[in-house]
Write a structure and sequence with these properties.
Layout (H helix, E strand, L loop, with lengths): L5 H6 L8 H12 L3 H14 L6 H14 L3 H15 L4 H17 L2 H18 L11 H25 L3 H14 L4 H12 L7 H13 L8 H19 L5 H10 L12 H6 L2 H7 L1 H14 L3 H9 L8 E9 L6 E5 L8 E4 L13 E12 L4 E12 L22
Parallel strand pairs: 3-5
Antiparallel strand pairs: 1-2, 1-4, 2-3, 4-5
Helix pairs in contact: 2-3, 3-4, 4-5, 5-6, 6-7, 6-8, 7-8, 8-9, 9-10, 10-11, 11-12, 11-13, 15-16
Length: 415
């Protein structure tokens, strides 16, 4: 924010310079081009004239100058001074709260994030009322700035949780934000992403609803057209992968467009659930998956631990099996892989190798293995196998080392 000229201060009917000395400091500040020196002058102004009529303008100038000087302590100090002087009554205060909110995000200070986000939301209508719009600003631009402050305050608590990879907390925060702003497509998308990151199959349908909502919303609060189309394609691909076909997809898009949240009991039947309805047919079309699902049913029962000890441990558990790679530890030359066999999303199997595998592989690659079951956990379900690398199929081969050039022979000496 640019400091007004000293002459305009004197013209303000409710505000006046204390004396000529204050005017001289203001003029010196305006002439100074070095941000750090200008910051020192502003502090001198406050020290000499602590009760100046222009405390708010001074604090706003200090905030802008401190940011220009990249002085974080002074920026935080100026933001607090501006809030104290302005009492949340102008757009400048919204900027100050936003600055403090950014500091909270950087410091992962949940209390500071929540406090300043709420300050913006509770003060916004007053601070950016229509009668406070600058005369040289168009109403549409004023409304856009107000919306930007609101959106930033709404999503920041969720963003902070997501940055900590606390996706359960992020889901809760984005849910509250979307309830307050149900036509905000970005919030719908962020909520969907936080749900997906939890990797809970029972929540996949809810995540798809929110992605579909973000793809279908138009008008104020919608994503850019290119982002909408990209999101829609993402939903279509993942719906088919999850459900097994496009059946019901158009209905999902239509209903999500009308409501920010799915109705109670909303469900998309997974391909796994559909196939499980006719396990005999599955055993004919995909015997490996059928065997795996039967094994999961056996181990997921009340006596699953006993069944593992008596029937599965130290055997290949009916393998070999195929699964999609979820993660590798470490990513390069791993000795441990986590796979999903049932749906490509849910971690179910841990493979352990005595010697590291060569190179690395991208998540989602299909691998086939045959090993010896050594450990079992029921919740979350996980079956651990010790596997010989020779019985793992699909792992990328390490790139061959470049051949060394043959040494050049010295030319024969002339006789």
């Amino acid at each position: 924010m640019i400091l007004m000229a000293a002459s305009s201060f004197a013209q303000a009917p409710a505000k006046a310079l204390k004396d000529a000395g204050e005017g001289e400091i203001v003029q010196a500040i305006q002439k100074e081009t070095d941000a750090k020196k200008r910051l020192q002058l502003i502090d001198q102004w406050k020290e000499k004239y602590p009760t100046s009529d222009f405390k708010s303008e001074r604090a706003a100038a200090k905030l802008a100058t401190a940011q220009q000087a990249q002085d974080a302590p002074k920026t935080r100090e100026a933001a607090n001074e501006l809030i104290e002087a302005d009492q949340g009554q102008s757009p400048a205060s919204m900027q100050a709260y936003a600055v403090l909110l950014q500091f909270g995000m950087k410091d992962q200070n949940a209390a500071e994030i929540e406090q300043n986000a709420q300050k913006i939301l509770s003060s916004l209508d007053t601070a950016m009322a229509d009668d406070k719009k600058p005369a040289n600003m168009q109403p549409a631009e004023w409304a856009t700035q107000k919306k930007q402050f609101r959106d930033f305050a709404l999503k920041s608590p969720g963003d902070a949780a997501a940055s900590r990879k606390d996706f359960v907390k992020a889901e809760a925060e984005y849910t509250k934000a979307l309830q307050a702003s149900p036509n905000n497509a970005m919030l719908s998308q962020l909520l969907a992403t936080s749900i997906i990151q939890q990797r809970k199959p029972e929540k996949q349908a809810t995540a798809m609803w929110h992605y579909a909502r973000s793809a279908e919303l138009t008008g104020d609060g919608a994503l850019a057209d290119a982002d909408r189309q990209k999101t829609k394609a993402f939903v279509e691909k993942n719906y088919v992968a999850f459900h097994g076909s496009r059946d019901g997809l158009d209905d999902l898009f239509a209903k999500a467009k009308e409501a920010a949240f799915p109705p109670e009991g909303f469900k998309i039947e997974s391909k796994l659930e559909i196939e499980a309805k006719n396990r005999d047919q599955l055993m004919q079309s995909n015997p490996m998956l059928g065997k795996w699902l039967n094994l999961k049913d056996l181990l997921s029962g009340a006596d699953g631990d006993a069944k593992f000890a008596s029937d599965v441990k130290d055997t290949n558990a009916g393998g070999p099996y195929k699964g999609k790679l979820i993660s590798a530890n470490p990513e390069t030359k791993p000795k441990e892989l986590v796979l999903s066999i049932s749906d490509g999303l849910t971690p179910e199997v841990t493979l352990k190798f005595e010697t590291a595998l060569p190179g690395k592989a991208e998540p989602g690659i299909e691998l086939e293995f045959d090993g010896s079951a050594t450990a079992f956990a029921k919740d979350p379900f996980n079956l651990t196998f010790e596997v010989d690398a020779a019985k793992l199929t699909g792992w990328p081969k390490a790139a061959a080392a470049p051949k060394k050039a043959a040494p050049r022979r010295a030319a024969p000496k002339k006789g």
